[in-house]
Amino acid sequence: MSKLADLKSRVSYQGLLLGGFALLASGLLGLADYNTRDVIQLRMEEDLRASLTQVIPHTFYDNNLLADTTYIDSTGEQLGQDKTLVYLARLEGKISAVSFRLVAPDGYSGAISLIMGIDKEGNVLGVRVLAHAETPGLGDKIEQNKSNWILSFNKRSLDNMTKKQWAVKKDGGEFDQFSGATITPRAIVNAVYRGLEFFKRHQVELLAS
Ligand SMILES: Cc1cc2nc3c(=O)[nH]c(=O)nc-3n(C[C@H](O)[C@H](O)[C@H](O)COP(=O)(O)O)c2cc1C
Asked: Which protein residues touch ligand 1 with a CB less than 6 Å away?
């Protein structure tokens, strides 16, 4: 074999070998991705179920909240999305409460992601923070494991409080602010109020779901 032919065959052999390894590596990556995707999906569902059970007491439903949902157009409702996925709590087929995620866009450090539960009459059953970037020691008292502040929304509604009361005390309302941190609680109070307005606007449609 000439030197040139020998070089050519070595190059093509190395190319094939490299291609083979690349194929094997991408196959293994694909397999790992496929396997972990199920696990991630499962964990996300578990997290969501845990959040839902915190904002809707178990006495309010005998159905599978994750499987019983409806999309409601929320364009212009400032919930953080144009379509809102509403989880429906039913007792013997009848809607007893709903839950949905919403966003307070104006936290001190940006958006605060929330979930709230509302009974069929429009009373808050619970609110929880799903994600935020507020300052530790200042704005993070919105987390239930840091303080009970988030529980102050329980049983509140648009009917049992005036619009003026739906504010932090510093602004003349009912809700405590934190010492040295008013922006975070103010953002959440406003978001929960918008959430209740959204429910009220779609109450008939939701209860007929
Ligand atoms: C470093 C730093 C971090 C802060 N983090 C927060 C926060 O997470 N949430 C908050 O409400 N205020 C935070 N504040 C305080 C706000 O700037 C503001 O002074 C406070 O919320 C009072 O707002 P008010 O003037 O509307 O009453 C922080 C201030 C500093 C200097």
From this structure: 108-109, 134-135, 138-139, 170, 180-184
